[in-house]
Amino acid sequence: MARGKEATKEVEWRIKVEEDDTLKSKVVGCMWAVTAGLALKLCKFVKKAWELGVNDPRKFIHCLKVGMALSAVSLFYYWKPLYDGVGGNAMWAVMTVVVVFEYTAGATIYKTVNRMCGTSLAGFLGIGVHWVASRAGEQFEPIIVGVSLFLLASAATFSRFIPTIKARFDYGAMIFILTFCLVSISGYRVDELLVMAQYRMFTIIIGSILCIIVSLVIRPIWAGFELFVLVTGNLDKLANSLQCCVAQYFDGSETPDEDSDKQLLGYKCVLSSKATEESMANLARWEPTHGRFNFRHPWRQYVKIGASMRSCASCLDALIGCINSDNKASDEMKKNMRSISLKVGADCASVIREVANTMRKMRKSSKLDIRVTEMNSAAQELRSLLSCYPNLVHNAKRSTQTETAPSDIPLPAKVEISLMQIVQVVTVASLLIEIVARVEGIVEAVEELSDLANFQPEMCVKSKQHSPDSKISPDQQNDEETERTLQMV
Length: 489
Hints:
By secondary structure, this protein is mainly alpha-helical. 82% of the residues lie in helices and 1% in strands.
């Protein structure tokens, strides 16, 4: 019996040890699997971050600029003479750098100016209200502070709904409300508030100036140039989409390749760029002179050009919707309008590309008027051909009525089929004519830009460049640098 019990205990011990080993192996396996999964996700994240930095190195440079500005402003803590000068308020300089340093120079200047103005105005008003309330006595002090806080905060909040103030001083109005609340309801005496306000304004100004210097000196990213690249690039995308759409419809390409499909959908970037264009135009007005753009460059005109492009792109979207509808026109119907419709689409695309080149070179094109005339002539020819379609429909009805219809298909149904085949191609032609009118709107907006920005005629520039004694002008050098930058972007 004793030997049996010992054997049983030994078996139980072996089973328990084996179970413990199995549990440990499972736990270790799960830990390795979790660790491997986290490492794999980390590698993917690092790879995506690296690709993002390689595709646009300016983002990486911006990160270095922010780190440099924060490192410089941190000297207020680690360099004793600076710390003794500003005291414990050095944190406001650090907060200013964190809050106002933006990707573009225009956004940084916009936030720094708004922060300094909003803080100064709210600080003076808050100290004044605090002084009046403290002199009125303890009974009236909360009433004066509460009423002033209600009136000024309400007025500043309402001002943010005014379009002009919202575009230029929205951030400053928000800072005004915050600073006024902090100063007016603080429990300090007036003399203490003056000293504290002096230190804080000093540190905020230092942090703001440091942000502006770093943003403008070290590889600046201009909001105006970003807007310029965006608008000119959208013009090219719109031209490619228009030409590709007409070619695919009339050439009968049922399965377009990836490149043509990408060109066809390029117009959607135009439709979704309104908010970006308006934001960049507002920020560009804060930037100093850079490159070929003067301080008073008409940035708002780029928004008008973008609106004209969206009007054309919306018509192109309707054209693509008509082409993709279920009511397909026959090849015979397309054949009547194929050549002239392809010419209209190509001429429209050519005009849009010429407008884009005009904006890139900042020179009045000598070919633009010729291309617009050719586009209008092709549109008039398409309009004349379109006016002949009622006769074709009438002839189709007469030919259908003279034919002997099968017993299972009634005669009006055959006439309806002929009409439905005509409807699509006529609609496509009508939309092409409408697109021509909207392309003229783009041309008018660009010509207005050329007048406001004082673009020189292209012929005058060419004559200067081809003169034997002339050297490379600064404008020509800037053109070459801009074209190289556009290619990199």
